[in-house]
Every structure is written in structure tokens, then in C-alpha cells.
Amino acid sequence: MELYAGTEAQAATIINGKEWLEHKGTVGRVDPEKFRVLSADGDDAAPGEVGEVFMRASPDPAVHTYEYVGARARRIDGGWESLGDMGSIDADGYLYLSDRQTDMILAGGANVYPAEVEAAIDEHPRVRSSAVIGLPDDDLGNRVHAIVQTDDGSELETDELRDFLAERLVRYKIPRSFEFTTEPLRDDAGKLRRSALRAERLPRVE
After folding, report:
1. Are 132 and 182 in contact (CB under 8 A)?
2. Domains and CATH numbers, the chain
């Protein structure tokens, strides 16, 4: 079973393994009265369009006993709250998460979601894990940079990796630069700390 929610005071989705295999990548089917995805202009996104995910919070003040450490939920009229997740709802009502809004890379005026690029890189048979971040670029504002951990720690041919990604991503989402590492990219909880990885590399490009 997989569950997606922010807190016990917000809406949630749940899905079992059999249903997930029929809708790979989803976190479950949503109740349209409790979930919505808004585009950048504030309108409800079209089916399949990526936008900000909002969940309806409980109207009962007694259950709002939580607070966010180092962050705050964004609230809009109607009791809707966003934790900064980006995603889309397909025509059948299934929610697919794209990434965190804070991790999005604005490169040359285009939005690039690291999780999408990482998923494509991780399909390579030699890749164990990857992390994608944005680094400052004089022309693009930010360039897409990939940190790659291979199966044996050796580097891959970047041209070969770019060709591999060209079959899976549109051109502007393909990383402009790559680095290879033998260090694990995820912590003990399996989380990528993209902000920390970016902070480590900023002095090298400034």
C-alpha cells in the first residue's frame, strides 16, 4: 500500500500494488472535492498538466495541532493547502507527483523538474543513483547539472549518456554538465538533499 498526504488534517490518497501497476508512478486516485492542481495563473490545470498540488484541509480546528518546522503551508480560499509539491492529475483522476516546487530549475525560461531527469538517468544500466541540480549560468540563468553514481564508481562517456537521455527527454531537460562520484547520493532514509548538494558546488562555479 502507498499513501500520500501532508498531515492527518489534510486530504490523502491511498493505492495498492495491483492498482499501481495499472497506473505506474501514481500516488493514487483523488477525490476532486479534496484535491486539485493549479497552474501558474491560478486556474485548475488541464488533465496531465503539471501544476501545484493543493489538498483540502479539515474545517475542524481541533485537528490542526501541527506546525511546519522551517516552512509554512501555502493556503488559498476554500480551505486549500499546498506543501509545495508539483504534479498532475490524469483524465482518470490519478495523481502523479513531479517534484518539489523549491527544487524546480528555471533554465533559459523553461521549467525543469529534477525528479523527471533523475528518473531518466537512473534507467541507464550503469547508473546506481543520480541527483540533478541547477547551477548558475551566465546565458541560461541556471544550467541543469547531473551528479551520477555509477555501478562501479567509474565514469561514463558523457556523449553516450546524452544520447541515451535524448531518447527519453526533450532537449532542454538534458543536463548541460555531468560529474561522477563514488559517494552515495542519498542519506540513510533514502532522501536526496539537493539543496545541500547545490550549496557544496556553488563556490566552484562562482
Report:
1. no
2. 2-100 (2.30.38.10), 104-205 (3.30.300.30)
Residue pair 176/108 in contact (Cβ under 8 Å)? The answer is no
pTM value > 0.90 = no
Q: Which of 189, 172, 39, 167 is nearest to 111 (CA)?
A: 172
CA pseudo-torsion sign 125, 128, 132, 137: negative
Q: For cell 490545470, name the residue.
A: 45
β-strand 28-29 against 94-100: which pairing, if any?
Answer: antiparallel
**Contact assessment for residue 104 and residue 113, using Cβ atoms and an 8 Å cutoff:** yes
* Owner of C-alpha cell 538534458: 174
Could you tell me the three cell numbers for 29?
486516485
Q: Give pLDDT tens digits for 110-140.
A: 889 898 899 899 999 999 999 999 999 988 8
- What is the amino acid identity at position 69? V
